[in-house]
From TrEMBL:
Name used for this protein in its record: Serine/threonine-protein phosphatase
Source organism: Streptomyces sioyaensis
Native organism taxonomy: Bacteria, Bacillati, Actinomycetota, Actinomycetes, Kitasatosporales
UniProt KW keywords: Hydrolase
Gene3D superfamilies xrefs: 3.30.450.40, PPM-type phosphatase domain
Residues annotated as signal peptide: none
Entry keyword Zinc: no
Amino acid sequence: MAGIEPALPAPAHTVAPHAANASADPVCGALSEGSPGTPGDPGSDASSAGVTGTAPDVSGVAQLTAVQDRLAGWISDLSTLHDLTERLAHTRTLEEALRELLRGGAALVGARRGLVVLAPADGLGPETTVGLGLGHAEIGHIETVPRRALSYARILDGLPERGACGDDVPAPGAGRAPDPRRSAAVAACTEISEPDIPGEKGLDPRLREVAARLGYAASYAVPLTAEPIGRTGAAVWLYDEPAEPTERQRHLVGLYRAHAAEHLARLLELHRSRQAIEILREELLPHRLPRIPGVRLAVRHSTGPRGGGDWYDALPLPDGALGLAVGSVTGSGPSAVAAMGRLRASLRAYAVMEGEDPVAVLSDLELLLRLTEPARSATALFAYTEPPSGGPPDLPVPDGLTGPPPYPDDLEDMEDDLAGEGWGSARLPRKLVLAGAGHCPPLVLGETRTEFVETSLSAPLGMLACWEAPSVEIEPAGGETVLLYSDGLLQRTGESMDRAFTRLHAAATGVPGAIRHDPEAVVDHIVRTMLPQGLDDPSSEEDVVLLAVYFEE
């Protein structure tokens, strides 16, 4: 069998006592005619007795039965090992793989609880501890034991048990350079078994105390090592009673953890790549949303496992204006993230110069994309809003007073208006001018309406020789929210686009009236309704952006 050493120790429950003295080929020995006798009785003529019928060859039959039992045991072990490694191979995240490693190893060594520590030797992380049958509090108790007394910690620190390696392994000397041959040998023999923690002498008292409190009496720890990282961590399984794995169990769990360590190394590299892309993406997106008088913002976004090009922006502009944008770049991975960053930075520059004309902003962006990245396309939506123009609202003339306002009784109201950095900025409606290039239409949510904005049909950026589309102007009333989003919010539902749009409309309509004044609560409600698995669903490849713009009353 591939990956299984031929000289396996026999299962203790299947080998008869007399089989230990059998020949190297008991099947041939039992079936060969003319043999002078059996290993159990050298002087007998078993073959002759079998021919005359005077006595059956009991010893040969027993040997054949023992071999069949041994083969059945091997096949059973191989089937178990195959099932466990197949389940491990189906895990897609580091945490899933670590939990499955603990479950599979516990089944092989006959333990009920355990923990695995992920601590890559290259120091690049991530570092985490996952338990099987152990909660955070119980793991915390174990971590209070001095590190030198914990078997898995000694493995992580490169401190194998005294005498664990054979005499052929060179010992380090004072001032002697590290020997690669010793390092490889140490890595192969740093399995640490503590079969009787309550009764074993020389153990740390704190270890005994914690073991008694948590109810375990023995442990078996092994390293997890795979190239090119080297040591990735260590696993330890805990027994309720004094015990230790048999030689055969050690061999099987060794095969299993070799496969597990390779799988963990692959997932670790994938996790680091995704993390690097996520950090890059986060750095390219706004660190915080701007605070504009009369407007409150909230956003939720999530990146797919491979890193995508969905983005958003909220840009303070001169004279108290605000620019809002969402978009998506084709492709995935680092190249799409980099293209998203270039596109967003360019849009910011155009918005500062000509933000009051969203069509001009997108036209310039399309020209730039076509000239610099002709093989790429993108969708985008840009919206521009500025404070209402005009002076303070007309004040009534109290009885008995003449002359122009303001009057003393109205000074408090005027101060409230001035605190908003504009005369009546929270009372007069804001105009929102927007233009889209192949992007999803905004959704307006209010007390009296929930409707999509009727934007004109337009092609994505980079698809036509000359892009142009008319702008749309709306006036959100006080207390209304405008939702800008990427198509990933719709595609993650797994439904057709028409049904996904209907679902989004229903989710917005179902926002409770008590939270409609809070954009943070609004986006959370819509995400929960649209995506029951949450934003961080590892099974989805789509990016998600949801930006809520609430206009105060």
